[in-house]
Amino acid sequence: MKRVRWHILVFLAPAVLVYTAVMIIPLFNTLRLALYAEVDQARVFVGLQNFRTLFGNAVWSEQFWNALGNNIWFFVIHMAVQNPIGIALAALLSQRRLRFAAFYRSAIFIPTILSFVIVGFAWKLILSPIWGIAPGMLDAVGLKSLYAPWLGREGTALTTLALISVWQFVGIPMMLIYAALLSIPDEILEAGECDGITGWSAFWKIKLPLILPSIGIISILTFVGNFNAFDLIYAAQGALAGPDFSTDILGTFLYRTFFGFQLQLGDPHMGAAIASAMFAVILLGVCIYLFGIQTRMRRYQF
Amino acid sequence: MTRMTFMGGLLASTLLAGTALAQDVTLTIESWRNDDLAIWQDSIIPAFEAANPGIKVNFTPSAPAEYNAALNAKLDAGSAGDLITCRPFDASLALYDAGHLADITDLEGMANFSDVAKSGWSTDDGAVQFCVPMASVIHGFIYNKDAFADLGLSVPTTEAEFFAALDAIKADGGYIPMAMGTNDQWEAATMGYNNIGPNYWKGEEGRLALIAGEQSLTDEPWVAPYRQLAKWGDYLGDGYEAQTYPDSQNIFTLGRAAIYPAGSWEISGFNAQADFEMGAFPPPVQAAGDTCYISDHTDIALGMNAKTENADAAKTFLNWVGSPEFASLYANALPGFFSLSSHDVAMEDPLAQEFVSWRGKCESSIRSTYQILSRGTPNLENETWNASVAVIKGDETPEAAGARLQDGLASWYAPQQ
Q1: What are the sequence ranges of the domains in chain A?
Q2: Per-residue pLDDT averaged across B355-370, rounded?
Q3: The predicted structure's pLDDT at residue A302
Q4: Contact (Cβ atoms closer than 8 angstroms) between residue B180 and residue B381
Q5: Which SS3 state, helix, strand or coil, does residue A184 take?
Q6: CATH for A50-120+165-296, options being 3.30.420.40, 2.60.40.10, 3.40.50.1820, 1.10.3720.10
Q7: pLDDT tens, A198-222?
Q8: Is the interface score ipTM higher than 0.85?
Q9: Which of A70, A292, B168, B365 has its CA 20 to 30 A from that of B83?
Q10: Which is more confident, B18 or B219?
Q11: How many Cβ atoms are within 10 Å of A176's Cβ, its own excluded?
């Protein structure tokens, strides 16, 4: 006769219950909400009609693809700028001879704990053509001609915001990689030294392959974070994500649709449809990573 | 843990307050006018409470941009206040249709308002009213009198004079000709397009024709304001593309700009900030002697949450809002918000008097996009923000902007198809 192992259930229960109540139920309820519409003050089941409108109606689909395209660019900037800089900073910080390493580490990490609202507002002031210090600083080094109201121009606004976000969050990849670098045993590096591998080649040939799993985790965190982003754009450019929707990402598009904006009334059902589409995009990205990349990554045991 | 302590504190304070003031009814007012918090707390609410013992009033505003979203969420959740500050037209009509706002057509205080004043908060057929009109705002231009005196300029009345004045200010170089940015977008539509537009589309005549489908946004009267806006770009300060609304307000009140495309709601803030004398002029007409039209927009009203538990007290408050006492208190505490009631309200502020004097000389209209036309998707008001900005920056021609808006409107509005 098998004994029922109650203790497993008991230990799992709190986490499962809390997670179900605050994450799983709302998630499925959102997916369900996307299948309804409001007709004459009553909620009616319409099946996939909301998705048909979202992708089939030119007015909606244009906004959706614009937001998705902007979101991808936002992500590309993070991957191309934030993560390499984070890795480089971590590599520098893990040098044993570096002085004030603890100070640099804290200074670079501090923006991460600031609120989006503060970051958005502070950078808006810094870059402001009227009161900002950016024009003055460029003027001081004779490069005033390079200055433009970056946040107000369609061509540059999104990239500027992405770089602000990079400035804020570069501390996270730095910390994770730093921890991974510290966990590499000295014996391996010393063995490499015996074989003549030192300095930069030690980084490329020994350390980098060993921290690849961490880089993978950072990439997926960046991906999920970027496709869920909303706060910085909303704080800096407002819900209309100007100029001319050039900084509109999925999060701001969802907010505008779900809650409404100015004379546009909120539509929770179309909003839920957009949220479901966001969920699908993120799920797809995470699946590609989990099944396509992570399973092929080689792991080393020390 | 902190939250528990906080909740406990709240609970305790409620209990204490409950025993101390067992008889009192407390009314909560939802509003987007967080700028007016001090005025409500210091003058309006004490005046009401003195006249109506037993009713306490709480004014709890939220940020203007978040108000509609926050209010809708609170109403759906059943946690909204007893009195709801009403946006004009569809936002409030939708609340009434959804059963969130009570029908107050029979309230005695409503007798003090004209049909035009009530139009912003009535059903489409005008049979039912759901908010008591509080105030309208008038659009025009506020100018720096010292700057005009320095440069020897006189107040422009026609478009040609207006641009001549802007050219003169620009040539002098001491002042930014006009303080407006396009970062926040709405100023370009509200203080730009809907400010100068009524002169072209002849106020109510054009506005009603557009609603009836007799005119379209590609017609000359609706494209011409964009043509004027396209010329504005040259006169706005450096980097206006990233200039926000508070930036523009500060530039003007610091005396760095000569002209500010304005709504009258700016008056009290500007009086407090600016240390130079200000004047105002209505949107210049195309040729001398033309009838002038102004945007005298029904902007703010007060309605009652249909699910309030204090309906009697709320009705008492709404009746008081319709009284001459409130009209004079509000108009003088907030110069620039002009009473919509038929009471004769005397105002002391000279700038406010200047604005309101245009009602006598010019024909009044309201913003073209507010009634009915911003019901569908794409939303005409939001599209107008976008188009006005694009035209000022030169990214879109006035004709293209008109055509784009017309296509959007025709896609869902039957009379325009």
Answers
A1: 50-120+165-296
A2: 90
A3: 64
A4: no
A5: coil
A6: 1.10.3720.10
A7: 888 888 888 888 899 899 999 999 9
A8: no
A9: B365
A10: B219
A11: 19
